[in-house]
Design a protein that fits this description.
Order of helices and strands: HHHHH
Oligomer: single chain
Helix content: 55-70%
Shape: elongated
Structural class: mainly alpha
Strand content: under 5%
Radius of gyration: 21 Å
Number of strands: 0
Amino acid sequence: MAHEIEHRDPLASWSKREQLVLLALVPIAAALVGAWLVPVPHAWGWDESMHAEEPAVRMLLALEGGRFAPFFRVLHGCQQYPFGWPLVLLGFQALFGIGEIVARAAGWAAFALLLALLALTGRAIEVECASGPNPI
């Protein structure tokens, strides 16, 4: 007699919203803690400092001063990095203050969120595969 192993999903009783909050907040919290644990001598290199962090701080200071022309000048002047990453750094530093550790935490958080999205995608694929035969 074959015994089937029952697979219980510990998050099955949670709502989709609660699961998404968990997948977002846990990686961000872990990223912030991880960023503060990295020793300061292991600083960002020239590239990250000058082409991501520096435009982010200049845009943030321009917005804090209510000057939109300098903000857009810096936004359109982003060279090595697309303007998206400096905007993410701007958002993090607007919330948590300007600093390399905050920028480092933003990088950790982005990586952690990527891993969370990968887990969410894997979960969706598992549910889809368990729902029946694939018509393709």
